[in-house]
């Protein structure tokens, strides 16, 4: 036998379900970028940077920083340099090697844990244990 519910009760029930779903998304996120700072303010975060130069030689650096973004940390270390653009820092120099698209048709590609980065170096928050890479590509 089927129970009858009033329209008012059904709307209340639907509203509760929507509210619970919204709260769940608020507290768990949507599975987006897990690349966030994982330590308290002022404490150090350690990560690795792998640089692959135009000849294919890899050089690895271990970085420990209290900076919020990868860009801030690597600028402070003197590992990268670049130019400000409408899209953030355009990295032109890594580990003392400058690439110029106009001259060599090469640029520094930025990777996070082996995946081509979807964010710029200065908008990527540092994350403990992450491997960031710069590869000379063209």
CATH names the topology of the domain at 45-137 as Ferric Hydroxamate Uptake Protein, Chain A, domain 1
Order of helices and strands: HEEHEEEHEEE
Q: What average pLDDT do the residues reach?
A: 81
Helix content: 10-25%
The structure class reads alpha+beta
CATH architecture of the domain at 45-137: Beta Complex
The main sheet orders its strands as: 2-1-8-6-7
Shape: globular
Question: Beta-strand percentage?
Answer: 25-35%
Low-confidence stretches: 15-19, 21-39
Largest sheet: 5 strands, mixed
- How many separate helices? 3
Regarding CATH, which class of the domain at 45-137? Mainly Beta
**Rg, nearest Å:** 23 Å
Number of strand elements: 8
Distance between the termini: 70 Å
Question: How would you summarize this macromolecular structure in one to three sentences?
Answer:
It contains three helices and eight strands. The protein is an alpha+beta fold and 138 residues long.
């Amino acid at each position: 036998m089927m129970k009858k519910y009033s329209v008012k009760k059904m709307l209340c029930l639907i509203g509760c379900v929507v509210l619970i779903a919204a709260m769940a998304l608020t507290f768990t996120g949507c599975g987006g970028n897990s690349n966030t700072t994982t330590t308290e303010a002022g404490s150090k975060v350690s990560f690795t940077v792998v640089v692959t130069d135009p000849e294919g030689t890899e050089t690895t650096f271990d970085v420990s920083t209290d900076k919020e973004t990868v860009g801030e940390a690597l600028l402070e270390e003197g590992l990268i340099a670049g130019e400000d653009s409408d899209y953030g820092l355009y990295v032109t120099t890594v580990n003392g090697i400058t690439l110029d698209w106009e001259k060599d048709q090469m640029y520094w590609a930025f990777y996070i844990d082996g995946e081509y980065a979807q964010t710029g170096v200065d908008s990527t928050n540092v994350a403990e244990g992450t491997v960031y890479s710069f590869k000379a590509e063209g």
